[in-house]
Design the sequence.
């Protein structure tokens, strides 16, 4: 997979959430009459946010699905939680070895922010990724 692209009717709120609130760096951005977008680096995964209002043919956007969620691995989950300033539940320890909290972005997409407690376990592949809330 190269990257994930999200089309939104809430471009400013979405880019503020992933950029300022979660601290993801912008790796590319554009703003022109025929399109506006921003690409963030979520620790190796690229997330492209596209402004539906600038698309030549606006997409009909459905509700955000709970069949997938984004996982943002961080070095200090408490620092990210403090930067959000309150809308997220306090981080908790999951039984499978991470401290985490879960929130939804402005479009309703679930986002899990986690810090691995055992550094050898983190960032080593999909077998260590939480499949869903409370996964073993």
Sequence:
């Amino acid at each position: 997979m190269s990257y994930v692209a999200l089309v939104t009717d809430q471009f400013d709120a979405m880019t503020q959430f992933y950029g300022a609130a979660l601290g993801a760096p912008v790796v590319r951005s554009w703003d022109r009459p025929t399109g506006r977008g921003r690409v963030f680096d979520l620790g190796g995964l690229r997330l492209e946010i596209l402004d539906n209002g600038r698309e030549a043919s606006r997409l009909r956007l459905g509700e955000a699905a709970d069949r997938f969620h984004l996982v943002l691995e961080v070095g200090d989950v408490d620092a990210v939680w403090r930067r959000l300033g309150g809308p997220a539940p306090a981080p908790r320890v999951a039984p499978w070895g991470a401290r985490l909290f879960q929130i939804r972005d402005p479009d309703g997409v679930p986002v899990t922010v986690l810090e691995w407690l055992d550094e050898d376990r983190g960032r080593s592949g999909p077998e260590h990724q939480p499949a869903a809330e409370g996964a073993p």
